């Protein structure tokens, strides 16, 4: 299902123009930070817009808390983590290691992930951006686009000072929800005909005796079948509202703390909540926080080491896995993922499983000892010039996105979008005229190691 909506201003918009960067990056999550930092590194004048007062997107505001997608999966439970994603993802990971902002790799089923400190994520992102002279404008909500014909010339933002315009030669939509695409009236889809992966409200649990917890829970961050049965039994008593029975708990870099991915957020009437609707996003956050209370009580009542634990934080917003996805020149398909398709125009790789959050138990389809690649043209919208779409709102089918949306991959998409944007700006070449093969070559020169 393709949807359209628009809030379009003309070239003669009459608004104050705050800035005219070479490249405008909208959104300060993983993809946006990668895009802005990379574009600045390669000589462009860059402005990063972010609606919150900090960078991080779902990783920080949504408190997703893990850097997923860097390591291969294996059927050998004793095999060590094997990293296959590099480039900006590795740059950010290494910077976080330097400030003790990440854990060592933790077992996640058949693969590995690391958990991060959200405050150090923010600080690391800002340090990288400022090191490349990127201008940052926080508290800026995109409410429209400046469009003439098929050209996207800028955006309209609402901030504390009112409405203003930002005009740019090239725009990178890293909003996660394809907000610029939406405001420009360009085409996108929402999930599988409106059926989306459920949001979650992730929380941090303090006061945990981690040693006792790990002795009971074991090394895998995904709960055992026995714990799932305990959740189901506790729910049946009527004392706990525990919608999801398969939960994930991650020790964090902070002492005595767990990151808890446990909730499944639905509407009060049982419908899917979609984050491109203000009323749904509001309901998701209210419902999510209510669920957090019950899961926290369950953990304190039943899980060793959590007896005196307490909730020390929830996400600033619900964690959003899926909303709008661009309709691109090309689309990452479900079959591309299942076939582990490699391609000469691939600008990113993903070894992460199809991790489909719907129902009481998430679906996991592992990519054992393998990965697939994502084409450059999945970042190029079907219509609309001067615009790239990156991060989890790039062009992908429903189940493919359930694998391709995670943090390490978003870092790669942002890096690739920046390299294409800089090339387009410096050579005065349309974005859609740049080949994926060329962007892959630029990625490799920039440390992505896609041909290793």
What does this protein structure show overall?
With 452 residues, this protein is α/β, with parallel strands linked by helices. The protein has 2 domains: 316 residues, FAD/NAD(P)-binding domain (3-Layer(bba) Sandwich), CATH 3.50.50; 112 residues, no CATH class. Helix content is 30%, strand content 21%. It is built from 12 helices and 24 strands. The longest helix has 25 residues. The two termini are 38 Å apart.
Blueprint of the fold:
Elements: E1 2-3, E2 8-9, E3 17-19, E4 23-26, H1 30-41, E5 46-49, H2 57-60, E6 66-67, H3 88-98, E7 106-108, E8 111-115, H4 118-131, E9 135-137, E10 141-148, E11 151-159, E12 162-167, E13 170-173, H5 179-183, E14 188-190, E15 203-206, H6 210-217, H7 225-236, E16 248-251, E17 258-261, H8 278-302, E18 310-314, E19 324-326, H9 334-338, E20 346-350, E21 354-356, E22 363-365, E23 372-375, E24 387-389, H10 398-404, H11 407-427, H12 436-445
Parallel strand pairs: 2-10, 3-12, 4-5, 4-13, 5-9, 13-24
Antiparallel strand pairs: 1-14, 6-8, 7-8, 10-11, 11-12, 14-19, 15-17, 15-18, 16-17, 20-23, 21-22
Helix pairs in contact: 1-4, 1-11, 11-12
């Amino acid at each position: 299902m393709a949807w359209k909506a628009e809030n379009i201003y003309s070239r003669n918009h009459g608004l104050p123009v705050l800035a005219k960067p070479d490249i405008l990056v909208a959104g300060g999550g993983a993809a946006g930070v990668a895009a802005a930092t990379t574009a600045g590194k390669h000589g462009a004048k860059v402005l990063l817009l972010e609606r919150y007062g900090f960078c991080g997107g779902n990783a920080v505001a949504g408190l997703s808390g893990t850097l997923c997608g860097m390591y291969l999966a294996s059927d050998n439970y004793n095999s060590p983590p094997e990293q296959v994603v590099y480039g900006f993802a590795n740059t950010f990971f290494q910077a976080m290691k330097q400030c003790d902002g990440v854990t060592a790799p933790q077992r996640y089923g058949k693969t590995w992930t690391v958990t991060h400190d959200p405050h150090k994520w923010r600080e690391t992102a800002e340090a990288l951006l400022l090191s490349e002279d990127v201008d940052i404008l926080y508290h800026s909500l995109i409410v429209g686009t400046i469009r003439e014909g098929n050209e996207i010339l800028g955006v309209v933002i609402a901030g504390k000072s009112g409405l203003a315009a930002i005009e740019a030669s090239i725009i990178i939509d890293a909003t996660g929800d394809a907000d610029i695409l939406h405001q420009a009236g360009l085409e996108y889809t929402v999930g599988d005909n409106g059926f989306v992966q459920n949001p979650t409200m992730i929380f941090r649990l303090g006061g945990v005796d981690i040693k006792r917890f790990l002795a009971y829970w074991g090394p895998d961050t995904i709960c055992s079948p026995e714990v799932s049965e305990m959740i189901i039994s506790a729910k049946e008593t009527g004392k706990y509202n525990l919608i999801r029975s398969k939960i994930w708990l991650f020790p964090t870099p902070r002492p005595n703390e767990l990151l808890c991915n446990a909730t499944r957020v639905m509407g009060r009437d049982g419908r899917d909540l979609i984050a491109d609707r203000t009323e749904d996003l509001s309901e998701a956050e209210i419902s999510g926080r209510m669920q957090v209370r019950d899961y926290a009580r369950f953990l304190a009542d039943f899980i060793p080491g959590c007896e005196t634990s307490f909730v020390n934080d929830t996400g600033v917003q619900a964690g959003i896995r899926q909303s709008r996805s661009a309709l691109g020149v090309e689309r990452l398909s479900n079959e591309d993922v299942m076939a582990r398709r490699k391609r000469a125009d691939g600008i990113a790789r993903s070894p992460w499983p199809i991790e489909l959050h719907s129902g009481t138990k998430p679906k996991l389809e592992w990519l054992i000892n393998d990965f697939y690649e994502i084409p450059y043209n999945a970042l190029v919208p079907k219509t609309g010039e001067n615009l790239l779409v990156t991060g989890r709102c790039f062009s992908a089918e429903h189940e493919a996105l359930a694998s391709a949306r995670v943090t390490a991959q978003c870092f790669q998409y942002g890096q690739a979008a920046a390299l294409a944007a800089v090339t387009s700006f410096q050579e005065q070449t349309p974005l859609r005229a740049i080949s994926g093969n060329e962007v892959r070559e630029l990625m490799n020169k920039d440390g992505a190691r896609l041909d290793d």
